[in-house]
Design a protein that fits this description.
Elements lengths: L4 E4 L2 E14 L8 H8 L6 E13 L2 E5 L14 H7 L7 E5 L5 H4 L15 E5 H8 L8 H14 L6 E4 L8 E5 L8 E7 L2 E7 L5 H4 L13 H18 L2 E4 L7 E7 L2 E6 L1
Parallel strand pairs: 4-5, 5-6, 6-7, 10-11
Antiparallel strand pairs: 1-2, 2-3, 3-4, 8-9, 9-10, 11-12, 12-13
């Protein structure tokens, strides 16, 4: 199996697909439907499909994976990550660290199998403390039922790893991986900067969901965001940073394989694949 990759310093980062996520333009909150249809190039009976990308690299004898995919029970077009890893020569048991951008279903359901057991039994989880503490907290009353359901599933996803969770904060680093809090989509949504010498890349998680829209129109917000205004501000900040510093970006929902550069285009931005 040929696996797409890019290099940063002495690291080779490979992109592995978990499949495609079926979604709808109905989730867009502040753009006319005709405009959004034109930007994505039309839909399939109202549906569109966005990639779910994951990234793997080796450092100091450790296999490090960014996010864990959607698992076996989210959508039939998802949950392909373990088989794609094996086809690319990566045994899930060999993964030493899983770096979570956030604990949402399409990034963390893939931590466990149908029996609730760890697919990556030797992996330590790196996750921002603010993200972990929110989803693992108890309901204090008054939370929406949908939020309660996501919390319950997230706790199930994390349960086999409870003794192997490292709650990270800004300024901390593990094997060159440093968290940059970019909250809004979720309370502790995190971009991870991975250094290799003087070079780096940024795994930006869900800074954008619809790359055909939100990179060139970063004010566009989605119903997926827990705090749309905070998500918008984080998106502007990260787009500006990556364009200024010419950092390679690895995006969970950027057109597969998901890596490239953010460039300025007039007053807004565009994405150029590596």
């Amino acid at each position: 199996m040929s696996v797409p990759s890019f290099r940063v310093g002495d690291l080779e980062i490979k992109g592995y697909s978990d499949g495609v996520l079926r979604t709808s333009l109905d989730m867009i909150l502040n753009m006319e439907r005709a405009r959004s249809e034109a930007l994505v190039g039309g839909t399939d009976g109202g549906w569109l499909y966005i990639p779910v990308n994951n990234f793997v690299f080796q450092r100091e004898g450790k296999t490090i994976m960014i996010d864990a995919g959607s698992g076996h029970d989210m959508q039939p077009t998802l949950g392909k990550l373990p088989e794609n890893l094996r086809a690319g020569g990566v045994d899930p048991k060999s993964v030493g660290y899983i770096v979570l951008t956030h604990i949402h279903p399409d990034h963390a359901n893939g931590l466990i199998d149908p029996r609730g057991e760890a697919i990556y039994p030797n992996a330590e989880i790196l996750v921002h403390a603010q993200e972990y503490d929110f989803w693992m907290s108890e309901d204090k009353g008054g939370e929406p039922e949908k939020l309660k359901a996501v919390k319950a599933r997230n706790k199930r996803n994390m349960k086999p790893y409870t003794e192997r969770v490292r709650r990270m904060r800004e300024g901390e680093e593990v094997l060159g991986c440093t968290p940059i809090l970019a909250a809004g989509h979720s309370p502790g949504h995190t971009c991870w900067r991975v250094m290799s010498g003087r070079e780096s890349f940024l795994a930006w998680g869900d800074i954008v969901h619809l790359s055909a829209i939100q990179i060139s129109h970063p004010d566009t917000t989605l119903s997926y965001d827990l705090d749309g205004d905070a998500a918008r501000k984080s998106r502007h900040r990260i787009l500006d940073m990556t364009a200024n510093e010419r950092i390679v970006v690895a995006g969970a929902h950027v057109n597969a394989p998901g890596f490239g550069h953010v460039v300025r285009k007039g007053t807004t931005y565009a994405f150029e694949s590596v």
